[in-house]
Amino acid sequence: MELYALANVSPFDPNLQEVEVYYLDCLLQKGRSCSRLLKASSPDSEESVAIKLFPKEKNGECSPGFITEEGSVTKLSHPNLLKYHTFYKDALIKGKNGDFCEYSAIVMQYVSHGDLFKLVSNAPLSEKVARTLFKQMISVIEYLHEKNLTHLDIKLENFLITDDGIKLIDFEGCQDLKKRTSVALPAGTSGYRPPEFVKGGHQDLKSADIYSLGVVLFTMVSGTPPYTEIEENKVQKFDKYYEALRKNTTKFWEVHEHYRTEEHQECFSKDFKSLVEGMLAENPKDRLSVEKIKRSEWLKGDVCSKEDLTRELRNCH
């Protein structure tokens, strides 16, 4: 399948465009608002790229997700963010009936090792490997927050795996705190979003990112999420494991250790438990800040060398 991207060639005449062709390969990931991430190639280059497609609105305008992502990532440069190459407001794909479907498209760096969800689905990570990746995660979140941006969809699927660690993707829901300090509910991804995004209440969007990152950290080491959201009578609620986290943390950890090891032995370090509990505090005001996370005892532990990390990640695939 071919994508025909329309590129402006003159800053003085917006109607003067040239067509750039990309060959679309396989689907890599489905995003929010019907966006799709695909592997692709260009006849002008032998290197593969990733292309994120956003269906146009009914009135022909670019989707809000495309506008948000383009406006956010063009400001950013960090070793744990993907490299974005080109943004096309207009792109066409020929359908089976011969008609053209209209999209906006973002061409970006292609990462071949998949995402963190697939990695952890194979086996949970050791605390040493998780700590090595988490340091990169907290670094990129701190960078975003210093830019007054919040991601608001931190989850395993949005961290791509490279030989050197992780790359954070998907900025469709990114918020500029200079423009907005709260979001309409429901927001975020079920199971990762903070309780105030489900039940309502005071919002601190930076703290919301911290909460979601806490879920990611727990799941990396446990291999299973800390709890799940359930729907009853079209109302989102939390399961009994969430209630245990709030009322009896000893029981919460015992239950997860029961599933983590056949011998049902204690398998999470004390410092790991303390960090996770601080990041998953129910009240946003009680959650750990980035600075407190960086000073936590758990982050002072051993990390993998670059060579060891590459080997560990390859072994997990």
What does this structure look like?
The protein has 317 residues and is an alpha+beta fold. It has two domains: 2-109, 2-Layer Sandwich (Phosphorylase Kinase, domain 1), CATH 3.30.200; 116-316, Transferase(Phosphotransferase) domain 1 (Transferase(Phosphotransferase), domain 1, Orthogonal Bundle). Helix content is 33%, strand content 25%. The chain has helices at 64-73, 116-122, 127-146, 196-199, 205-222, 240-247, 249-260, 270-279, 290-294, 306-316, and strands at 2-8, 17-30, 36-42, 45-55, 84-94, 100-109, 149-150, 159-162, 165-168, 175-176, 229-232, 235-238. It has a six-stranded antiparallel β-barrel. A two-stranded antiparallel sheet has the order 7-10. A hairpin with a 5-residue loop joins strand 2 (17-30) and strand 3 (36-42). Helix 3 runs antiparallel to helix 5 (205-222) and helix 5 packs antiparallel against helix 8. The mean pLDDT is 90.
